[in-house]
Amino acid sequence: MAKVRKAAVNFIFITILIDVIGFGIIIPVLPDLLSEMMNIGINETSKYGGYLLFAFAIPQFLFSPFWGNLSDRYGRRPIILLSLFGFSIDYLLLALAPTYIWLVLGRIIAGFFGASYSTATAYIADVSTDKDRSKNFGMIGAAFGMGFIIGPLIGGVLGTYGLRLPFYVSAVLTFLNMLYGYFILPESLSLENRRKFEWKKANPLSTLIKLSKYKQIGVLLIAYFLLYLGSHAVQSNWTYFTMYRFEWSQLMVGISLAVVGALVGVVQAVLAQKAANKIGLNKSIIWGFALYTIGMFLFAFASTSWMMFVFLLPYCLGGIASPNLLAFMTSKVPENQQGELQGGLTSLASITTIIGPVMMTGIFYYFTTESAPFHFPGSAFFLGGIFMFVSYLVVYYFLREKKA
């Protein structure tokens, strides 16, 4: 049984890795593509990049509980495969898009099918025991880390040969990933642990209400929400900020994201589990949130390129919190409700993707224009730091009480 579980985790690791590589490939070229397509400056493209994330987040928020509940009924495997197929269509649309509206349409389609991560997380919960839960969730973080090492580097190189080439490569890679999953990926949810599909549970509002009923999770959901909201200062703003502030090229952006990926991979695959074993689950979550906060505030005041790389250390070390937080929450939920839980958490994260990118890219754009009261390109990072500091206070007081 242990060998079967290990093989299943390895399968889902490769599936997520290829999925993230496909996404990472397009990141370095998107600002230049928008600039060329719309004939605007890099700082202004940040607004429209934020709107694209908004277009993705709305349908993802609406349909994530649907896919999560569907995976509790029919299994994780078919939902993951269908999601990957949707993403391959999205990348093809982005590659062929003649206007900005077509980019928006592609993102809407991707949002509708955007269940690969939440279902993969439920998959990991299915095959994990209490002993290896943090380690297995750390493998998801490692897959993201490695994907962001490989993807942006490939995208930075491919972008020099054509701004649309990375999108074609992502489409092919994601489609091949779907084929890999079809032939290799086993099902993780046994028949006896499946439950009847209920429409009343397949909408975001009822799922969010259901989340509030898990007393053992409690206010950690608030911290989870604020952490994701604050993180959009990096996720939605990094490329635009560094291209504007330090005049980084596509390749340089790709290299920086590869460094992020390497750090995240090491932290979540190795250090998260070691931290949980050494100082306990609660303290590793608290320390992780503190490091996230410190790193974010440091980004806000970076004045040279090398500072961004140095400040990545505390920020990425904060990654010890994420898998341990998921391990804590999933351990409090029955096996046949893991898909529902992950669908709800994805909906919660999707709300931050509705609000966060528009907020962070908007504040960055505003404080880089002449109408701003003062010039502050790091404003988005500063706001993200405030959100993360509040989330740190929430986990600190909640988990301290749990320990008591």
Key structural traits:
single chain, mainly alpha, 79% helix, 404 residues
Average pLDDT confidence is 86
Derived structural class: mainly alpha
Measured between the Cα atoms of the first and last residue, the distance is: 36 Å
Low-confidence segments, ≥5 residues, pLDDT <50?
none
- How many distinct beta strands? 0
Describe the structure.
By secondary structure, the protein is mainly alpha-helical. The chain is 79% helix and 0% strand. The chain contains 17 helices and no strands. The protein has helices at residues 2-26, 30-38, 42-74, 76-96, 100-112, 116-127, 133-159, 165-184, 204-212, 220-235, 238-245, 250-279, 281-300, 305-317, 321-330, 338-366, 379-403. α1 (2-26) runs antiparallel to α8 (165-184), α4 (76-96) packs antiparallel against α5 and α7 packs antiparallel against α12. The radius of gyration is 20 Å and the shape is globular. The relative contact order is 0.17. The model has no long low-confidence stretch (mean pLDDT 86).
